[in-house]
């Protein structure tokens, strides 16, 4: 009687344990994302959200992660950092997510971070500015090149071609101004001096006043434009209108098919630092960023019928960095995953070869940006 | 005169011409209803957007332009019927809020249906710049100027010569009195929204070859158009032209001679000063309220 009771008890316990195990196995790994799907940053946030969906599907199709399914819970902050903060609270408290991706913008990232830090969740930002990882924040990582790297890459090229005095034309958006600030800060390092510093509104229909001023300054050897979207297009057209032959550099914000299409002949000869995804087809086969960038670009285009963007690629990189960290940690334990992220070594993604450390939560340098030149309406590697 | 100065002037005229077209739409609706329509920028955007989407779908440019203008007209009509007209007894301030709401809806829908990318249009005539004394202007800017002038003259004739136009003016001065003499005030209001949408869309289409268009293009153009209309005097056609060109010139000359960093600040300071010293605008008629 007693024996059978014990046996029954053991059997029951085994059942319960098995049941619990099964429940754990069935419980998906939760990834929370707060992106800007509407509002000013929507052109960035949309491909990010699409890419994340694509990555989740791929991961699940390949059998999930650590044998568990992955679930993505996503909110749209409407390009409002205040809202991002509210949504991340919900992701942390109600959804109890294992990991966070997001902040399409730097503002949203910084607005979310204090809550994330308190909750101790690994967090990968897609935002652009340096402040995200400088100073290093324990739970926060970043995937994209920052504005300073893009400026450095362009300035390096200018210095190499002997341009010592350049004009800067930046728009008044956060992107334009941050890029302007970084350029002013690092120009000296490359022996380049900025002798004309002009700004314009990104929605201006004409910037020929600023351009005429630059054109009539005989000391200017090259023009560097920091803008995004409509701005660089109007600048390129204005330069063509004024018949300017000044060497023309753009920031990485102009590296898009849209810029090529809408500027036409006006952008012939323009040089810029570009993320690998946009120019994958012209990279040499030996470049470790080529194959994976081309593969992502192809998959994205096939699924969403629009050309891939740099921003979508950031989401891809964030996702795979995290998958890689979880696999190495062998668990979704938040502290272990964070440590694994910090120990990422020689991991190739679309932005470069990532090697992180406790002092560096970005892990890439400006060499991941490719210097390209527009020739015959297409990209070529700059020589 | 140095070529540089002439280039600043031509740049200012190009900027100013677009502001003028936006300002005209503001004046139109203000005339009919006393409402400042903050969806005016969206009318501009819809015109440019529809036309460029249609052109890239292979539809010839003139047809695409007509459809673009019609689409904006339809939105103007729906906006008055479904939103503004529904609360016509509300105060003007409330109606202005309604127009802001509509502008957000239109922007959001455009974002969903046409995406977030920038779109362009081919130049109407040549894209070869015209040289004037060492400076250049695009033929497209002349198109914008010419059409603005035509619209101003057309509106002037409409308001002074046609019964409908006079009826619209009457309805804006005194709605009740206008109703008593048999003017269909509701129809007048609807018409004013359609007309200003048509004008805005025209402007949008004309500007798109120069500057491209995206779902959020209307915000800035609408704001600048409003400043231009206020500067010149709300409700005055010639005031809209004057205000628009003045704004464009001030911006370009500030960028040229002072610093481009102050380019956007100067117009807003200017409108502030004008509002304090001459609230009816530079060319606006002084309001005469009889007690």
Automatic annotation (TrEMBL), chain B:
Classification via InterPro entries: ABC_transp_permease, BCAA_transport_permease
GO BP terms, alphabetized: amino acid transport
Subcellular location: Cell membrane
Membrane topology: Multi-pass membrane protein
Coiled coil regions in record: none
Transmembrane regions listed in the UniProt entry: 6-28, 61-80, 92-117, 137-159, 188-207, 265-285
UniProt cross-references to Pfam families, sorted A to Z: BPD_transp_2
Keywords tagged on the record: Amino-acid transport, Cell membrane, Membrane, Transmembrane, Transmembrane helix, Transport
One MF annotation (Gene Ontology) recorded for this entry: transmembrane transporter activity
Domain of life: Bacteria
GO cellular component, one term: plasma membrane
CDD domains linked to this entry: TM_PBP1_LivH_like
Family assignment from sequence similarity: Belongs to the binding-protein-dependent transport system permease family. LivHM subfamily.
Listed PANTHER family: ABC TRANSPORTER PERMEASE PROTEIN, BRANCHED-CHAIN AMINO ACID TRANSPORT SYSTEM PERMEASE PROTEIN LIVH
Record's protein name: Branched-chain amino acid ABC transporter, permease component (LivH-like) protein
Species per Swiss-Prot/TrEMBL record: Paramagnetospirillum caucaseum
């Amino acid at each position: 009687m007693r024996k059978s009771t014990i046996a029954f008890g053991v059997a029951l316990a085994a059942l319960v344990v098995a049941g619990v195990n099964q429940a754990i196995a069935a419980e998906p790994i939760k990834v929370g994302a707060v992106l800007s799907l509407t509002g000013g940053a929507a052109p960035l946030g949309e491909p990010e959200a699409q890419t994340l969906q694509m990555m989740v599907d791929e991961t699940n199709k390949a059998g999930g992660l650590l044998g568990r399914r992955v679930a993505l819970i996503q909110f749209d902050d409407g390009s409002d950092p205040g809202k991002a903060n509210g949504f991340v609270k919900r992701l942390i408290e109600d959804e109890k997510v294992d990991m966070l991706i997001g902040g399409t913008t730097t503002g949203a990232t910084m607005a979310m971070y204090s809550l994330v830090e308190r909750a101790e969740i690994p967090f990968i930002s897609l935002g652009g500015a340096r402040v995200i990882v400088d100073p290093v924040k324990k739970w926060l990582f970043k995937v994209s090149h920052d504005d300073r790297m893009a400026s450095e890459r362009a300035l390096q090229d200018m210095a190499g071609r002997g341009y010592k005095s350049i004009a800067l034309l930046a728009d008044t958006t956060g992107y334009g101004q941050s890029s302007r600030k970084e350029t002013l800060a690092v120009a000296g390092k490359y022996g380049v001096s900025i002798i004309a510093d002009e700004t314009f509104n990104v929605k201006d229909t004409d910037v020929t006043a600023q351009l005429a001023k630059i054109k009539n300054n005989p000391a200017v050897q090259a023009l560097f434009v920091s803008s995004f979207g409509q701005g660089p297009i109007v600048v390129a057209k204005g330069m063509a209108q004024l018949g300017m032959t000044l060497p023309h550099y753009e920031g990485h914000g102009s590296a898009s098919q849209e810029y090529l299409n809408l500027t036409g002949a006006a952008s012939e000869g323009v040089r810029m630092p570009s993320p690998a995804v946009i120019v994958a087809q012209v990279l040499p086969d030996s470049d470790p960023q080529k194959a994976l960038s081309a593969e992502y670009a192809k998959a994205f285009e096939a699924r969403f019928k629009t050309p891939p963007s740099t921003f979508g690629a950031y989401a891809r990189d964030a996702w795979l960095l995290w998958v890689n960290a979880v696999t190495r940690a062998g668990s979704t334990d938040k502290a272990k995953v964070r440590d694994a992220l910090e120990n990422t070594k020689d991991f190739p993604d679309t932005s470069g070869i990532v090697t992180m450390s406790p002092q560096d939560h970005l892990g890439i340098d400006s060499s991941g940006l490719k210097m390209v030149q527009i020739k015959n309406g297409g990209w070529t590697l700059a020589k | 005169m140095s070529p540089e100065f002439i280039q600043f002037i031509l740049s200012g005229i190009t900027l100013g011409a677009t502001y003028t077209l936006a300002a005209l739409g503001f004046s139109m609706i203000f005339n009919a209803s006393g409402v400042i329509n903050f969806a005016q920028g969206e009318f501009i955007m819809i015109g440019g957007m529809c036309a460029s989407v249609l052109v890239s779908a292979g539809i010839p440019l003139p047809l695409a332009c007509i459809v673009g203008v019609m689409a904006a007209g339809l939105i103007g009509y729906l906006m008055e019927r479904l939103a503004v007209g529904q609360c016509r007894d509300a105060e003007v301030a409330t109606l202005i809020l309604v127009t802001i709401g509509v502008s957000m809806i239109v922007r959001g829908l455009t974002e969903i249906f046409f995406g977030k990318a920038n779109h362009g249009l081919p130049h109407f005539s040549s894209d070869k710049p015209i040289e004037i004394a060492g400076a250049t202007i695009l033929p497209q800017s002349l198109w914008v100027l010419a059409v603005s002038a035509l619209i101003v003259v057309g509106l002037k004739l409409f308001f002074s010569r046609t019964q409908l136009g006079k009826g619209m003016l009457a309805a804006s001065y005194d709605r009740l009195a206008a109703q008593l003499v048999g003017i269909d005030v509701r129809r007048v209001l609807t018409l004013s929204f359609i007309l200003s949408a048509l004008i805005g869309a025209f402007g949008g289409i004309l500007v798109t070859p120069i500057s491209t268009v995206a779902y959020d293009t209307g915000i800035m153009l609408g704001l600048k158009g409003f400043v231009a209309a206020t500067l010149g005097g709300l409700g005055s056609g010639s005031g809209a032209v004057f205000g628009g060109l003045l704004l464009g010139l001030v911006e370009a000359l500030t960028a040229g001679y002072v610093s481009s960093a102050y380019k956007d600040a100067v117009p807003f300071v200017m409108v502030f000063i004008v509002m304090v010293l001459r609230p009816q605008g530079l060319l606006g008629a002084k309001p005469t309220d009889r007690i």
